[in-house]
Each structure stands twice: as structure tokens, then as C-alpha cells.
User: What shape does this take?
Amino acid sequence: MDALFGSRVRTDVLVAVGRLGSAYVSELARLLGKRPIEVQRAVSSLERAGILETRRVGNVRMVELNPRFPEYQQLAEMLLTMSERPLYARKWKAQRRRPRAMGKAR
Amino acid sequence: MTFKRGTLLEVAAQASATLQRAGITVAVVGGSAITSYVPEVYTSKDIDFAAINGTSRRAFTQALAPLGFRPRGRDYVHPNSNFTLDLVADTPYVDQRPITEFEMIKTRYGPVRVYSFEDAIADRIAAFLHWGDSQSLDVAERALKARPAMTNWRRVSAALRKLDTSDPQAARRLRIALRRLRKAYI
Assistant: This one.
């Protein structure tokens, strides 16, 4: 399973992107407990393979699954299911992604 | 008026009664609704109020003043309370669905209007569907686990199926959420 997508880092990155929908490299690195350069390399190779795509938003580069990848729907479904495995689930269990209104103290 | 040891519901009840005297009807919504039902699962320190018949921020501020809550940023703080108050909406929505029916929970300071438990759960799941907020899914799952005997699964499931899943990603996430919540309920 580790090397399902070529390496452990590539698999982890894909599962995380499948879970989060979109994320930036340092966010992925923090979540996965990897160095940003490792994640960046994995993202680049997956982008070259046409599985991921990246786009710049302000100062950050957002990473997403490439919707033009032929098996995009099936891949997205599988990655989301994989993200529920205990190995991964604890990584995002406490992950807050909903927005916080401006001026909110906490 | 002392809030020092008051629970979220007790503080909400006192604020609700004070606001009601000024003609402002409120309901507890958002994460604080979950805390109202299962404080052991999720501790919100922020009481989100929806003024269900509408109000202005100015009227809200004036109505809360006798209770000692003062505006700070968008929150209202009290020197003796661990909880802050916030006016988040008039008609509250869970996803695209306006919520017009609430539970009335009794406290020693009077009743408080709160999202039904099912709507509170659906509200958390909406955050998972649209923002990928796994924390909300986790809270909803633990809330269901904490009170299965008091929960009607069909009502929970019906509330979840009203969520907007026109985006395929939201539809996929709903399938995951339903699986997790069903398991938590059993």
C-alpha cells in the first residue's frame, strides 16, 4: 500500500489532497509530518503524471486533484475512502478547515 | 448576575431572556448548539445567537448592556463569563436550508431555543461536506456516540440528506459521513 502510487510520500500526498480537496505544500507537509521539499517533489512528479494540478492563489500554490485526469471520479472516491484508514484518519481528526469570521476571538 | 460557573446553556438562557425583554428573539446555533446537547464532547466558548425575527447590531448591543456584556470586535464579552456571545445571523441556515423550528431546552434561568440535535449534527456535517472540515465530522460522530438512546437515526439521516450534494466532492463526503455516523449510532 505504501508504494501504491510509486512511493510512500506520493501515496500520502494523494490521500491528503483527496481528503482536503485542496491544500498548499507546507500544509500538506505539516499534516503528513514530512519535509516541505519531499512533499514538493512528490507534488511535482504527480503533476507531471497528470494526476495533480497546482495553481497560484495569492502567495501560495494550491494543490488539487486534476479533474481532467481520465479516472478522476474513481480516484477521488478511492482516496477519500483511503483517508478513513486509521493510519490517516488521526492526521485530520482535529483538522479545522471551516472558516472563522473576521474579528472572532476564538 | 453571576456567570462564573454557569454552563453554556445557563449563560445562553440568561442572555436570551434579557434579549427577549428587548423584543429580540434568539436561538443558539452553530457549534454552541452541539455543546448545548453534549458539553462533554465539544466545548464551545462562543455562544452563537441567531436573531430569528431579525435585529440590528446596535439594538443587540443595547439589549445586552444591562447584563454586562460589552462588544469587543464582533464578540460580546463579560468580565465574569468564560463565554462570549456573537450575533451570527437572522434566519439561520444549515447549508441551503433555513431553520425555523428549534428545540426549547429548559434551564434554571428559563428556556433557550437551540437547533434540534439533528440540525446541529447536520450543521457540522455541512462543514465537512463543503470545506473538508474533518474536525466537524469528528465532533458530529462523537456527539452521536454520546447520546444514541436519545437520537432518532431516521431524523438524523433525513437532515443529512437535505444537505447540498450537487458538487460530486460533497456527495462523496456525505457517503463517508453517513457511514461514520451510522456506525457511531449503532
